[in-house]
Design a protein that fits this description.
The complex is a heterodimer of chains A (279) and B (619).
Chain A: H1 4-12, E1 14-23, H2 32-45, E2 62-64, E3 73-84, H3 89-98, E4 106-112, H4 119-122, E5 123-134, H5 135-139, H6 183-196, H7 198-201, E6 204-212, E7 216-224, H8 238-250, E8 254-268, E9 271-273
Parallel strand pairs in A: 3-8
Antiparallel strand pairs in A: 1-3, 1-4, 2-3, 5-7, 5-8, 6-7, 8-9
Chain B: H1 13-17, H2 38-43, E1 48-54, H3 58-61, H4 65-75, E2 80-86, H5 90-99, E3 117-121, H6 128-137, E4 155-159, E5 175-177, H7 181-203, H8 212-226, E6 231-232, E7 238-241, E8 247-251, E9 256-257, E10 285-288, E11 290-291, H9 301-305, E12 310-311, H10 314-328, E13 332-336, H11 346-354, E14 363-365, H12 376-383, E15 390-395, H13 399-404, H14 411-423, E16 428-435, H15 442-462, H16 465-470, E17 472-479, H17 496-509, E18 515-519, H18 522-532, H19 538-547, H20 561-570, H21 575-578, E19 594-595, H22 600-618
Parallel strand pairs in B: 1-2, 1-3, 3-4, 4-5, 9-19, 10-13, 13-14, 15-16, 16-17, 17-18
Antiparallel strand pairs in B: 5-6, 7-8, 11-12
The chains are: A alpha+beta (279), B alpha/beta (619).
């Protein structure tokens, strides 16, 4: 039997580490379970002392943010991992990245207490980025490598959902002229379309169109990751939205060049904060 | 590089992987990749590019230790680079064909036809059609005669245990390797590398379409390769048949000596294997502790073709196992061999590896346990981690038949062993049996049933009621296949109809509770038999079968006996000639051209001895 002192000692060396990692390139084709297996094996290789659950076939104590759809890259996946022994975040990042293929890269980590909100249940919003490119440019062979790591300005929570919910914009003005619209016009069309599509409309918290020079447009969509209390929102279904978007841009000589998950947020006292902000 | 290196762009994957089951099977970047980078290959065009192809799905191929061994050995050389490829699953094959994309390697997604050498690992005969399918998907002509006109490369070769009888693939392979690949493969690649350097010089700037020089150059290269132990070049042999379809002569009758590694310890363990990204069949750290088996069971091909028995040094094993577990992060280690409990210091080995506090959670598996060498100590050692099932192979139900097949273990030992396992708390036991063994009678079949029933009643006696409710016997029944290089190689396989009856009889007479029953289709075993004992003419059948759509013949869902039957017929051959026919003692066997290290006289002697045993037992 352990005495109380020993028990306290034990809990003091037991740490939860919350970390953010990427899922890049070919690894977007791996399932959630594959990623869990890869990370737990990498932790063993890194010499980290994982804490195991009980039972016939004990599993390491790790909890992950919600699975991302197969085929989507991510800059922000999260995991809480229970570890025995003293370790700081910097050391952790260093050790585990050496043991991981570069497609999974731990970019940030914090040591937390055992009582932080669970990842799966607390994440309310998920931010995706879609890089749009004009077809006319594709033909000239001009391509653009969008910097994935580039920081975006945080999307501010707006009082009035979709402040730009201007009335329905007639598309007839555009019809006939096959010229690509500018970002602002495209945004108006987009609003028109989502207004017609309640399933998409109700699953989006906010979005933004941003023109990167005159040729590229970045669409960022902040979707609901769960049903929020007191709101009649729907959960953002990535593949549904992707279908919607593909149908939408088909009309405008625009191509979807790439897309990926950028960040996940919790809703803390009406502020959007990342899972690492709350630690 | 003769043909420039072409590879599939990352951008193409999106379309290719759309609606594909487990795309993780076809992607790269596993931990532990050893091949050279694409940039290195472009900068160093003299590098010999070797595609190591396992003609089954990724999950099975990546569970194969041989693949990891050869992958490492080749990539350890700076002048070679080895990349892997596997059989695409049927959905992916369809996708590749519909998009007109050739099959590519995992690591750099280089199209297989851009490799210098493509080497297939043939673990068993039912993969032969997959091999042809992969060649076709890569845009490579199946028959060696149709290749080498435009270009010597890629050379196509094969190795693996099934190829101790190389003839059924002889139409397709430029050369084959019989025996162990560790020493042969680098020798082969070295010769090819030297050739490549000269070949490039000779042909620079010319149009080599239908260049007759290519044929001569290829012949010269194959002649050089042939000098290496284990290398068989089908093109250099001609087989003559008698009017009654038997082999009259093989010319020249120059035997190919099986390649054998003298000292296993000269090749360390693969301590840094490629670790699959997706879940594979055996997702664990595999350690080969011993090669060969000293038992000499008369039905067992592996027992003869992997001779002599070579045990690895225990101190090296311990050190390298520990290092391997640390490198890989695996929580299971498997000590593999044909009969792991026969390793002299098996207990010490397990204790030393799992005794370390770092590996508290590591479980041990011994894939092939011998009943007679299984003991309480070993049982306790194996169960210290997670308790996986126990597997034993009594093979036959009666003592009489076990004596005939020289599976020397007696009934009392068997029962004692089952008791030990049950007392030690195993509630899942797997047992392997064979039916259709030479001299088998109906009472031998009854013995299988009785034996299984008596284990259940033992379990009932020894287990608490609660545990007994969980008790499970996995019974696996295979049809006996007389294989080349065994004393039973001359025996006729029992007719599939009779084997099916025997299976039904066993199934009908076993209690349904506690038993999970699985068996192989006797008709499938018949084709496996015909392929394993096939001669040069059977390679025509394999090609016909592939053309008719045969793939993944080992998968019950895909195997079609009718298809194979038609193909034999169309090739003017009789399946029974290769399967159920008892071969004459004085016949020239197709595999007589291979020197496996065990004399034919010895096999014959053993075959006669089995008959004598049968006679004695009758008396």
């Amino acid at each position: 039997m352990m005495n109380l002192k020993e028990k306290n000692l034990l809990s003091s060396v037991q740490k939860v580490i919350r970390f953010k990692f990427t899922k890049n390139d070919e690894f977007k084709y791996l399932s959630h379970l594959d990623i869990i297996r890869i990370i737990s094996r990498a932790s063993a290789r890194a010499g980290l002392k994982l804490i195991y659950g009980k039972g016939f076939n004990p599993k390491p104590k790790m909890s992950f943010s919600n699975p991302i759809p197969l085929g989507v890259e991510s800059l922000a996946e999260y995991c809480d991992m229970e570890l025995a022994g003293e370790i700081n975040a910097g050391e952790f990042i260093n050790l585990i990245n050496k043991a991981l293929p570069e497609q999974i890269c731990v970019v940030d980590a914090k040591v937390t207490g055992v009582n932080v909100p669970k990842l799966m249940s607390e994440i309310s919003f998920v931010l995706y980025r879609f890089n749009l490119i004009f077809n006319t440019l594709l033909k000239t062979g001009k391509t653009k490598k969008t910097e994935k790591t580039k920081k975006t300005e945080k999307i501010e929570k707006t009082e009035n959902k979709f402040a730009l919910k201007a009335g329905k914009i007639s598309q007839s003005a555009y019809a006939g002229s096959r010229l690509p619209p500018d970002a602002e016009t495209l945004k108006q069309y987009f609003i028109g379309e989502i207004n017609k599509n309640p399933e998409i409309y109700n699953s989006i918290y906010n979005f933004s169109f941003c023109a990167e020079d005159n040729n590229f447009i970045i669409l960022e969509v902040l979707g609901y990751a769960k049903n929020l209390k007191g709101k009649d929102n729907l959960i953002f279904k990535f593949n549904n939205f992707l279908n919607f978007l593909n149908n939408f841009i088909k009309k405008y000589e625009i191509k979807l060049e790439s897309f990926y998950k950028v960040e996940m947020y919790l809703n803390l006292e009406d502020k959007l904060v990342t899972p690492l902000d709350v630690v | 590089m003769i043909s420039s290196l072409e590879r599939l762009d990352f951008k193409n994957l999106k379309e290719l992987f759309c609606d594909i089951e487990k795309p993780g099977r076809y992607i790269n970047h596993e931990f532990g990749i050893k091949s050279k980078s694409f940039e290195y290959l472009l900068d160093n065009p003299s590098t010999v590019l070797f595609a190591l192809v396992f003609p089954d799905i990724y999950e099975i191929g990546m569970s194969n230790l041989g693949l990891q061994i050869l992958y490492k050995i080749v990539n350890d050389w700076p002048e070679f680079s080895c990349e892997r490829a596997f059989s695409p699953w049927v959905d992916f094959e369809k996708k590749l064909r519909s998009l007109n994309i050739k099959l590519f390697s995992l690591e750099n997604r280089i199209f297989l036809d851009c490799f210098d050498v493509i080497g297939f690992s043939a673990a068993h005969e039912m993969l032969y059609t997959n091999i042809l399918n992969i060649l076709n998907l890569s845009g490579i002509a199946l028959n060696f005669k149709d290749r080498g006109k435009k270009n010597v490369f890629p050379l196509v070769c094969a190795g693996g245990p099934a190829l101790v009888n190389p003839w059924p693939l002889s139409k397709f392979m430029d050369f084959m390797v019989v025996g162990e690949g560790e020493e042969v493969l680098p020798q082969v690649l070295r010769i090819i590398g030297d050739f490549k350097a000269g070949y490039k010089k000779n042909t620079t700037g010319k149009d080599y379409a239908n260049n007759s020089d290519n044929y001569a150059e290829k012949q010269a290269l194959l002649k050089k390769l042939k000098k290496i132990d284990g290398v068989f070049v089908p093109e250099f042999y001609k087989v003559y048949f008698t009017s009654s379809e038997m082999i009259k002569d093989i010319k020249p009758f120059e035997k190919v000596k099986k390649a054998t590694v003298k000292n296993l310890d000269s090749f360390g363990l693969v301590k840094d294997p490629v670790i699959p990204n997706i879940q594979v069949i055996h997702d664990r750290f595999n350690v080969e502790i011993m090669r060969g088996c000293s038992r000499g069971c008369r039905f067992c091909q592996a027992g003869f073709i992997y001779r002599p028995v070579r045990q690895r040094n225990i101190d090296m094993l311990i050190a390298q196992s520990i290092e391997g577990l640390k490198n890989t992060g695996y929580d299971e280690i498997s000590f593999t061999s044909l009969s792991s409990a026969d390793y002299k210091k098996i207990n010490d080995l397990i204790c030393s590896v799992t005794g370390s506090p770092d590996f508290e959670r590591v479980s041990v598996s011994l894939p092939s346990l011998r009943i007679d060498s299984f003991n309480i100590k070993l049982a306790e050692l194996v169960q210290s981690g997670r308790k996986t099932g126990l597997t034993f192979a009594p093979e036959a139900g009666s003592q009489r038949l076990r004596n005939i097949i020289k599976k020397d273990l007696n009934h009392d030992d068997l029962m004692q062993c089952m008791k030990t396992a049950i007392i030690k708390g195993w509630d899942k036991i797997k047992l392997y049996f064979m039916i259709g063994l030479p001299h088998e009678t109906d009472s031998d079949i009854d013995s299988i049933i009785e034996f299984i029933k008596s284990i259940i009643s033992q379990a009932e006696k020894l287990m608490s009621r609660r545990n007994f409710a969980r008790f499970q016997l996995n019974i696996s029944i295979n049809s006996f296949i007389p294989k080349p290089f065994t004393p039973f190689q001359w025996a006729g396989q029992e007719k599939s109809e009779i084997l099916e009856e025997k299976l039904h009889y066993i199934l009908k007479n076993l209690p349904k509770r506690f038993i999970k029953f699985n068996w192989t289709d006797p008709y499938k075993s018949k084709i496996e038999c015909a392929l394993s004992r096939g001669d040069v003419r059977v390679s025509d059948v394999v090609e016909r079968a592939w053309k008719k759509g045969a793939r993944f013949d080992n998968w019950t869902d895909f195997f079609s006996y009718n298809l194979w039957q038609d193909c034999f017929k169309e090739a003017g051959l009789d399946i029974d000639f290769y399967s159920s026919r008892e071969i004459e003692r004085d016949e020239i066997l197709p595999w007589d051209i291979i020197d496996i290290g065990v004399k034919k006289e010895f096999f014959l002697q053993e075959y006669e001895a089995s008959k004598e045993t049968a006679e004695e037992m009758k008396a």
